[in-house]
Amino acid sequence: MQAVEAKGPGVHVLAPWTGSKDERGAFFESLRTDELERVVGHPFEVRQINYSVSRRNTLRGIHSVTSPPGQAKYVSCVRGAFRDFVVDLRVGSPTFGQYDSNVLDAESGRAVYVPEGVGHGFLTLTDDACICYVLSSTYVPGTQIDIDPLDPDLALPWGFTEPPLMSDKDRDAPSLAATLASGVLAPCAA
């Protein structure tokens, strides 16, 4: 596993180890927790795995989880492609409110590690795109943080050319400033 630290402390873009490629296709290791833990410097215990299947031009996010319980994510694309965004939501972080973006696709196998306190969202670039989330905590109702993915203060360059498909929850989510004022965002761990 090769890793590059992205913008925002603790955010990593990871490339899998490719074991073999031949006329039948390819084999690669998507996730080895021992390698991931070496990269991020702390344990990553898998508690839940989710899949999201979306039509082209679907916008989901920006989502995070309150702390406690907190939630780290290992995000990869198992079919199709999507433009992935992470936004630092950790109060007091030197990169608070800043984002990093990568295109993740099934062919490359690249993934993004999203630490606790960092928001995540994506725009699908293909029909039937399937995103896999490996999570460090289980779903707990009432702990979700939703931030407007079209917040003009964030100015995320989604790159869509027509209005994206969005849930009402994401469309009606508050701005980063309103979320900060509500007091639900966690401080940056020292």
Automatic annotation (TrEMBL):
Keyword Isomerase listed: yes
Coiled-coil zones: none
InterPro entries the UniProt entry points to: RmlC-like, RmlC-like_jellyroll, RmlC_Cupin_sf
Lineage: Bacteria, Bacillati, Actinomycetota, Actinomycetes, Kitasatosporales
Alphabetically ordered keywords of this record: Isomerase
Family: Belongs to the dTDP-4-dehydrorhamnose 3,5-epimerase family.
Protein name: Putative NDP-hexose-3,5-epimerase
Site description Participates in a stacking interaction with the thymidine ring of dTDP-4-oxo-6-deoxyglucose, residues in chain: Y139
UniProt-listed GO biological process terms: dTDP-rhamnose biosynthetic process; polysaccharide biosynthetic process
Regions crossing the membrane: none
CDD domains: cupin_RmlC
Gene Ontology CC entries for this record: cytosol
One Gene Ontology MF term: dTDP-4-dehydrorhamnose 3,5-epimerase activity
Active site (UniProt): H63, Y133
Keyword Isomerase attributed: yes
SUPFAM superfamilies named in the record: RmlC-like cupins
